[in-house]
Amino acid sequence: MVSVVETVNARTLLVISPLPTHPQDEGANRRVFAMMEVLREAGHDVHFAWLPQNRGDELAMRRYWGDRFHRLPYTDPTPAPTRLLQKVRSRLMRPHNYRIDAWYDPALDAAIARLRDTIRPGAVLVEYVYLSRALTLFGPHCLKLIDTHDVMTDRHARGIAQGQRPRWFSTTAGEEGKALARADLAIAIQDRERSFLAGLGGCPVITVGHIAPVESRWRGLATLRESAPKLLYVGTNNASNVQALTHFITQSLPRLQARRPALQLHVAGKVCLALGAIDGVVLNGVVDDLAPLYADAAVVINPVLFGTGLKIKNVEALSQGCPLVTTATGAEGMEEGSGNAFVVAEAGSGFADAVLALLDDPARAEALAQAGSALVRRMNMRSSAALLDALALPAPERMTDVMMGRAQ
Q1: Helix (H) or strand (E) holding 265
Q2: Which architecture, in CATH terms, is 221-378?
């Protein structure tokens, strides 16, 4: 049994994450990095412990974090026969929930305990509920947090209902509640998921959305009046993005091209890997600086059909000052902006008509762009305040009535 160190450095935060902070080529990576930047700027001494479950640029992370970067050992703990069974079930579109610790490599315990004893953090934050076992290594004087990102309860079943092959972590409500019970506080990415997670009863839950710097470079009327207006879609190569973009290209793009023959759809990000050559579609691949693409986009689209969490691509489009058209699913967690900061439309012909309406009404598009930037500023302020308040809370007070009230 590893002893638990009780003395802590109050301003030291240890983050344990399978997500890298570099490269920032996916929304989840950018979310983690943005949260850590808020905490660092507020004076927290942040240590970043990365376990290489996901691809990352270790050299870039070492350069950025210096001696605050720690590489943890990680080997997939799933036995080979079980992995084979999971692949078969995935191909057959059958849901399969994991036990909460199924993706936790037991070898992490010793490595995390050594870090704990060396830096003596006053708070520890793990990314995703499936790493919650790490929190059991820390004593009562250390504030323990989980950044959930998504609700994992029956996630596979929800994906299969939308025609998506199950590939990511999914568990039962009981197992997710077990993970939350290991924490003093959980972070949800949007209010609807906060309500669900709070209902599991494991710990208080707060909302911290995606914190995106507002840097509007959109060229407004000049962009909208171009003879060949450009639409923009940005996304990584996951099933939800591929499904949404494929549906848009087959169901919406022909209607748009019939009205605006010179219109182009620009696509950026790893989702380009899933597409071949298509008339009117420009594949930009992974782009280091998206600002020029946002500046030239007449309208940014996100025709997502299914998904959990907060649609980070929506927040980032609005933070760049762009008019946005998305679906009701895409608007989840940002409902206060529906209709005034961005347009919500049904996928298919209705989505195409919503895009055309903005192309035909530059004044409306500019008003949306300005309101969208203002919305992101408000969301940033709320999220930053919630995050900083959580980390400022002394561990002995974590379950007081004040905390419970804040989590409602």
Answers
A1: strand 264-268
A2: 3-Layer(aba) Sandwich (3.40)
